[in-house]
Design brief:
The complex is a heterodimer of chains A (about 160) and B (about 300).
Chain A (H helix, E strand, L loop, with lengths): L1 H19 L9 H11 L4 H18 L5 H19 L5 H25 L9 H27 L10
Helix pairs in contact in A: 1-3, 2-3, 2-4, 2-6, 3-4, 4-5, 5-6
Chain B lengths: L1 H17 L5 H12 L1 H18 L9 H31 L4 H6 L2 H35 L4 E11 L4 E5 L12 E4 L2 E9 L4 E5 L6 E6 L5 E6 L5 E4 L12 E4 L11 E10 L6 E7 L8 E5 L9
Classes of the chains: A mainly alpha (about 160), B alpha+beta (about 300).
């Protein structure tokens, strides 16, 4: 639970940054990277709760359809966990590709959720730009998250990244 | 030794008598739940999230505490970031950008730089006073009460387009108030905190504004496409519309006063259903350069012919 509490202020700072400094520029999806990072190490109730809470905060902050990001991030969390049984997200290339793919998946799931809620949204290229940026930043971001995680749990080998 | 053994056996017997063993089916269910707890929790949370999203249009007040807490926590960070951004931009344009030439140039160039900096500052002040003058003139001329507000942040999630303004409940701002500029409609207030308010822009997919075409008075609904533009709905094939026509608020919803510019038609295509036409419109307001807005503090602008 320590990690979830540490990731909350990071998420709020990131959302504040994205809404002020990089409002018109594609920025990496840090919320997705946190969930991706937690899921790569193995599905856990903490990771699942983080996916729900961070998604809820993202929707609350951006004024989006409440629940759509949570839904997408929970599906991403469980899909990453299942995918990590087949593929090891251990090299920077695979991490970048994985983050890109799951960023697209998150956007498509949000799109599906808000379309189902009766909002007439349309697909556009902005989601690809966000996915590419997320993919590019994923290896470095995951290393930083791993360091933070190790700092929070210095004694356990279990919590180290693969 | 035999005495000790006896004692131990009697203990085991007592334990066996008091312990009620789980039946095989209970044990199976328990181990199944334990084994698949992540999947079960995922399904439960995913369904709950989906329920929240699907019941969005029912307008149930939700997440007020979380929203309030998030806005409260992010507000100082946003202020800090805006301040840092301005300072860095100023330092870049007035110092770092000129650092290479500063070594080569003489005192005169330094003076030019200082004058340029002063000039930029004055231009900014002129721009600010011009914008405020426009807002004040518009506010004085308007037939409804308004209050000025600054934009704190621009939230462009994948499909949502909202801005945060520096006026909230404490300033008398409430849900469903219109937000405008002299150029036209910006959107409407959807959430209010104590000192901040969240405004749904008219380019957001959830925004629907009743409008009419200024030239021909044909009525329709301007819906945001979530990607910086709008679509004009419910215009029939035989309706008279053309590229360049202005869309104005009809005042039907009661939120927006009648006659405010909403957008301009930029593309017309035949619809898929052979009954309506597909019309794309550009917003009247340029959201990328938007800094100050007016919140209409009145409501109930109902349509009067």
């Amino acid at each position: 639970m320590k990690e979830l509490l540490a990731f909350l202020p990071i998420t709020i700072a990131y959302l504040a940054f994205r809404s002020t400094v990089s409002a018109n520029v594609p920025a990496p999806d840090v919320v997705l990277l946190i969930v991706f990072f937690m899921a790569v190490r193995g599905a856990s109730l903490e990771g699942l709760l983080a996916a729900f809470v961070l998604g809820y905060i993202e929707d609350a902050f951006t004024g989006g359809v409440l629940g759509s990001s949570s839904f997408a991030l929970i599906i991403v969390h469980i899909t990453v966990h299942l995918a990590s049984k087949k593929a090891h997200f251990s090299t920077p290339g695979i991490r970048a590709g994985g983050a890109l793919f799951f960023s697209l998946l998150k956007s498509l799931l949000i799109f599906a959720a808000i379309r189902s809620s009766g909002v007439r949204a349309e697909l556009f290229w902005g989601i690809a730009a966000t996915a590419i940026t997320t993919g590019v930043f994923a290896p470095a971001a995951m290393n930083l998250l791993a360091r933070l995680s190790f700092f929070l749990n210095p004694h356990g080998f279990k919590n180290e990244t693969q | 030794m035999p005495q000790f053994k006896k004692k131990n056996n009697s203990r085991r017997l007592t334990a066996a008598k008091t312990f009620t063993p789980m039946s095989i089916s209970e044990r199976t269910i328990s181990s199944y739940l334990k084994k698949h707890q992540i999947v079960i929790a995922s399904i439960f949370l995913a369904l709950y999230s989906l329920h929240l999203a699907l019941t969005y249009k029912q307008d149930i007040p939700r997440g007020y505490i979380v929203k309030g807490a998030v806005y409260y926590a992010a507000y100082p960070v946003q202020r800090l970031l805006i301040g840092t951004k301005s300072a860095v931009a100023g330092a870049w344009s007035h110092y770092v950008y000129l650092i290479g030439t500063a070594e080569e140039n003489d005192e005169l160039k330094k003076n030019i730089s200082a004058l340029r900096s002063e000039n930029n500052r004055l231009r900014e002040e002129i721009n600010l006073s011009r914008r405020l003058k426009d807002l004040l003139e518009y506010r004085d001329a308007a037939k409804f009460d308004t209050t000025g507000a600054n934009i704190l942040s621009y939230n462009a999630n994948d499909w949502s387009r909202t801005v945060l303004i520096n006026k909230g409940k404490d300033d008398g701002i409430r849900k469903d108030l219109a937000v405008i500029t002299p150029a036209g409609v910006v959107g409407r207030v959807i959430e209010t905190g104590g000192k901040t308010g969240s405004v749904l822009l008219n380019t957001d997919s959830r925004s629907n504004i009743d409008v009419y075409v200024q030239r021909t008075r044909v009525k329709g609904v301007a819906e945001g496409n979530g990607n910086g533009g709008m679509a004009l709905k419910y215009i029939r094939l035989d309706d008279d519309v053309m590229v360049g026509d202005m869309l104005l608020t009809s005042g039907i919803s009661g939120i927006f006063p009648k006659g405010l510019p909403v957008g301009e038609i930029v593309r017309i295509e035949k619809g898929k259903d052979n009954f309506f036409i597909y019309i794309e419109a550009r917003p009247a307001v340029d959201f990328k350069t938007l800094e100050d807005v007016l919140v209409v503090t009145e409501s109930g602008f109902f349509y009067k012919e």
